Amino acid sequence: MTRLSTMAVAAGIALASGAQAQDISTELPPEDRWTVTVAPYLWMLSLDGNTTVGGIKADVDVPFKDSIQDLSFGGMLLTTVRKGKLGFSINGVYTRVSPDNSVGPLDIDSTADLAQLAGGPFYRMVEWQYGETSAGQPLRFYLEPYVGARLNYLRVEVEVRGGQQQDESQTWVDPIVGSRVGLDLTDRLALFGGADVGGVVTGSDFAWNAQAYLGYQTSVFGRETFLSFGFRAYHADYEGGNFKWDATQYGPIIGTAIKF
Questions:
Q1: What is the domain-level CATH number for residue 186?
Q2: Count of domains forming the chain
Q3: Half-sphere exposure in the Cβ direction for 62 (13 Å, CA)
């Protein structure tokens, strides 16, 4: 089996998302022992959408060029436990954006903090060897559907400069369903990604999460390690009482996964 395959599902998704993040430890055939993979990520955020808090509506738009200036960032920590074709992932996400905008003659400052905890089981449904490397190692494609739930906590503060201020927080749970995929490019390089949808029945009116990564396998202190760079987007449309949030968070993401 390839060294790359050993690390192909434990570093990336989301379950992004917050949501369920992509796990990059593909082992084909899967190991017959329990393994644990820990994957921290840094997410450089842009934001596009709007929020309504206490009757004050504000745009929450942060283009990528302003993300550092507006202190827009996010962090994720994915932990994956798996044995054979079956596994379970828990993913924690925290993001913070601080956009400034104007509505007519009014200057509005806003800050949004979003914390998420998502988890659920996944299953290796498809394993396909489509070729070999020059050294005779297999190159493979995999498909892993998953289900789960995403706990969301969102706090939004909106202030009209020199005037009214509103601060509100909401907590809700979205059921999610999705799938992740992976493709070996060489014995060390792989493409992988995933997507899911949530809400509708309960929680958000609708939510979706999508991500794609390019990863490189190496070794750090004798541990299998996967370095990855990619792009992630998460959208939520949620309304509760006088509160409304309809926005997409997106941007490049970089991380690593270490297997134990």
A1: 2.40.128
A2: 1
A3: 27
- The tokens describing 220, both together, are 């750090």
CB < 8 Å & 24+ apart, contacts of 221-226? 223/258, 223/259, 223/260, 224/3, 224/6, 224/7, 224/25, 224/258, 224/259, 225/7, 225/256, 225/257, 225/258, 225/259, 226/7, 226/8, 226/10, 226/11, 226/24, 226/25, 226/39, 226/256, 226/257, 226/259
Query: Please, where are the H alpha helices in the chain?
Result: 3-6
Mean local confidence (pLDDT), 40-56: 83
Residues in contact with 72: Cβ distance below 8 Å, sequence separation at least 6, in sequence order: 44, 45, 46, 47, 62, 66, 95, 96, 97, 98, 99
Query: Which residue type occupies 42?
Result: L
Query: Residues 132-161: pLDDT tens digits?
Result: 888 888 999 999 999 999 999 988 877 766
Alpha-carbon torsion angle 28, 90, 197, 114, nearest 10 = -140
Question: pTM of the prediction?
Answer: 0.79
Which residues pair with residue 212 across a beta bridge? Answer: 193, 231
**Residue numbers of the domain that contains 165:** 3-259
